[in-house]
Amino acid sequence: MLPSLPLLLALPFLMAVAVAAFPRSSRSTAAWLAALAPLGGLAILAWLTPSVLDGQVVRTMVPWLPQIGLDFTLRLDGLAWMFAGLVLGIGALVVLYARYYLSSQDNAHRFYTYLLLFMGAMLGMVLSGNLLLLMVFWEMTSISSFLLIGFWSHRQDAREGARMALVITGGGGLALLAGVLLIGRIVGSFDLDVVLAAGEQIRASALYPYALFLVLAGIFTKSAQFPFHFWLPHAMAAPTPVSAYLHSATMVKAGVFLLARLHPALAGSDLFFYTVSGIGAITLLIGAWNAIFQHDLKGLLAYSTISHLGLITLLFGLSTPMAVVAGVFHILNHATFKASLFMAAGIIDHETGTRDMRKLGGLRRLMPFTSALAIIASLAMAGIPLLNGFLSKEMLFAEALSAGGTDTMRTAVSIAALLAGVFGVAYSLRFVHDTFFGKGPHGLDRVPHEPPRWMKVPVEILVVICVAVGIAPALTVAPILHAAAASILGSAMPEYNLSIWHGFNLPLAMSAAGVVGGVALYYGLRKLIDLHAVTNTTPGRNAFHHQLDLLSAGAQRLTAGIANGSLQRMLLGLVLVAIVMAAAPYIANPASPNWTKPQPIPLLGWALWLVMMSCAVATLRMYKQRLLAVLLVGGVGLMVALTFVFLSAPDLALTQLLVEMVTLVLMLLGMNYLPAQSGPERPRWRKRRDALIAIVAGAGLGALAYSAMTLPPNTMAGELLARALPEAYGQNVVNVILVDFRGFDTFGEITVFGIAALVVHALLRRTRMAPERIMPGPPIKLPVPADLAQIMFPLTLTVSIFLFLRGHNAPGGGFIAGLVLAVPLLIQYVIQGTASVESRFGFDYIRCIGTGLLIAILSGGASMLFGVPFLTSGHLDLHLPLIGEVPLASAIGFDIGVYLVVFGGAMLMLSMMATVKPSRTRTARKGEIDLQRRSARTGEMH
């Protein structure tokens, strides 16, 4: 049973890769591939259902980063099982619906890829058994929802809605991360089971208010609670399948899921009660009232979603056992009727060309079947008897009447619940009346008709569920509700009876008053004002853009003050910050360094030091002669490399030497773009200031290096030397540190290196003289140096592979091998020019970076399949005929990723530098090429 949870989580991601890997397949093929993920997941979930309904918690745990308390723990209890069913079940319906909704101009493969990534992120969040792992998937939902909301990137409203959602939910995610870290500090663990069992400890801590407000900030932003609710209506610019999925069962439910998940740990205090129930009540009323005056079908549904999310938040804020049961119940009910309503709105838009209710009306005559489905779902949203929404609405009324706190609080909650019932009936009635009844439609460019048969199937299934739950709740939803609520309440689970009739009581009277009041309010507003003439304002959007403008203006002022184009000023700031940060610990806790007696330096060491100092001083004296200065700086680097050789550090020496070679090429390429004349001499006082700063920085760095080199032998270095061979199966401890002991650091570094290369590419690609493609034409005759550079390439490729293969047991490895392979190509760029090199080589450096990162992730994650942490090394001795025994360490896979990223990143950056030319003509600025103007010698443009 244990492998089932990783497979359940992996399915959406695997299918996302499969869909993206076949971009030329048909739309139906893409839909079938996408559907395999939710359908397969539902099959796995069905297999686990008996265990969950018996009250068991299914777990899978793989150590990931145990040093910081992060384990890859998956946990399936009743609440996670219910949410996973919503994510997969409605996800399968959305996949089918999207097959017929998307137009032929839409990229269906990209859409399904984004949808599956979001589905996987939601599954990971609800299945997470570790708070830090939950945070990883939480942020993945924000990013993937950004891609989905902005799917129609050609539309400004889609781009704006996606950006707004990302900024609001991303900011809330940062607050949530801080809250999670505080909870981990209070409890001493991030394991969900430990946290849920430590409720009293958390509430008794002095850090509880801070942790609570930070966690609630993440929850409220995700679930569109006041005052962060304004992003949700603007997210309606997404395709309707996205709205039906994100805003019924998934993204906006992520916040209330976390509220339910952490309820045992955070609830039970007056602070939680008043904050959560207060915000929930405000959101409930604001969303419901604004929904009445919307003209867009999806806009009305968006504000009603805000209102219902506020209702759920209010119920969890009340914190009584029955309020929690009601909150869980309404999560289920809202998911079904709201998903069906969004899909119905999409059908109307698809068949009429508009969602504007001012142009609609009378659709019951033209689209009778769709109209019937939408009307039933609307009645469920309004809380009409014999439909599922009625049952959870009555629970709300009952819990509002018995709310804790003061009498004033109880009265306020009861009034808010009644008003919400009135407003809910009013906006549901407007949705039905203005769309399906009355005169119309008006001004359409087509004659509406029923959609394709299979496009209606998802709506039909959801509407049938609404009716079935409303008529027979005990036979349909009761086991699901009990399992989910019991996983939150535990032993406090109350006895309750799910039935459609509880006799004549006050909640029933409130339901009747809500229906009558809603009908009266809607028709009263129609008599008093012209609802179709109401202009909707968006103060939240305006405030958001105002804040962005202020932030942008502040950033521009800061940039103008720091990065004003003066390289000297930026370097000065960098060095000063480094000095302050390095000196701060010593100033806070001054202590004399415990330096040992220095060892005598042999004559060779003095010679190296003398040459190094001579090159450094000569660079200062001859800085105006740029080429000579660059060569002198290279001389300093060469002496540093030889010093590493002198100190028996061949890996560092080889790395330093190769970095110097690449840096030298970079500087030579950069010199082409410097002005012909140096700027005016700086004042003498600036030279003295710079000299003083340089002396302080150099002395501090030298002292730090000397302290590190004179540490006693019984430090971490000795432990690493002892553990390298038996645990990581490598004799080269430097490489073992990079790919095993500190492999996660290395993964972060190659990721940053790849990102830096892509940033350079993005900044310089507009200045390329040639399009980004392989240059056509036959190979060009090259002069002797270029011929030698070509001859060097197969030799250096051989050396590169040799250094890579021996890196785990001798000096070498992926980083060194990648630089070795890059050097001859860079020389060819300098000698021959970009056009000539790319016409023959034609290597895609961007794909190389991406492939390297993917290989590094897969090789690191493969160890988790064997129950060991990320990037743990394994070992295998192969016995090959004729060759004999060949030892292999699994770290070689990760090193391949390092190799490709280093090679691709270095080549991408430096090849871009080799290609940049000032655009002196309009032809050059447009990036046009005249192949007749290539140099016959080097292929460069004249």
Précis, in short:
71% of the residues lie in helices and 3% in strands.
Individual helix count: 39
Number of E-state strands: 4
Compute the separation of the termini in Å: 68 Å
Shape: elongated
Class by helix and strand content? mainly alpha
Portion in beta strands: under 5%
Strand order of the largest sheet: 1-2
CA-atom Rg in angstroms: 33 Å
The quaternary state of the protein chains shown equals: single chain
On the 0-100 scale, what is the average pLDDT?
A: 85
Indicate the percent of residues in helices. Answer: over 70%
In terms of per-residue confidence, which ranges show pLDDT below 50 for 5 or more consecutive residues?
Answer: 768-775, 917-942
Largest sheet: 2 strands, antiparallel
Structure in words:
The protein is mainly alpha-helical and 942 residues long. The strands form 2 sheets. It has a two-stranded antiparallel ribbon. Strands 3-4 form a two-stranded antiparallel sheet. Helix 3 packs parallel to helix 16 (321-352) and helix 14 (270-292) packs antiparallel against helix 15 (297-318). The termini are far apart. 43% of the residues are buried.
Secondary-structure map:
Blueprint: H1 4-21, H2 27-53, E1 58-65, E2 70-76, H3 78-101, H4 108-127, H5 131-149, H6 156-187, H7 192-196, H8 199-204, H9 208-222, H10 231-234, H11 240-246, H12 251-261, H13 263-266, H14 270-292, H15 297-318, H16 321-352, H17 363-366, H18 368-382, H19 388-401, H20 407-436, H21 453-471, H22 473-476, H23 478-489, H24 506-528, H25 539-562, H26 567-588, H27 603-621, H28 626-646, H29 650-671, H30 684-709, H31 716-728, H32 733-741, H33 743-764, H34 784-806, H35 814-832, H36 834-840, H37 845-862, E3 875-880, E4 884-889, H38 891-915, H39 922-926
Antiparallel strand pairs: 1-2, 3-4
Helix pairs in contact: 1-2, 1-4, 2-3, 2-4, 3-4, 3-11, 3-16, 3-21, 3-23, 4-5, 5-6, 6-9, 9-12, 11-16, 12-15, 14-15, 14-20, 15-16, 15-20, 16-18, 16-19, 16-21, 16-23, 18-20, 18-21, 19-20, 19-21, 19-24, 20-24, 26-30, 27-28, 28-29, 29-35, 29-38, 31-32, 32-33, 33-37, 33-38, 34-35, 35-36, ...
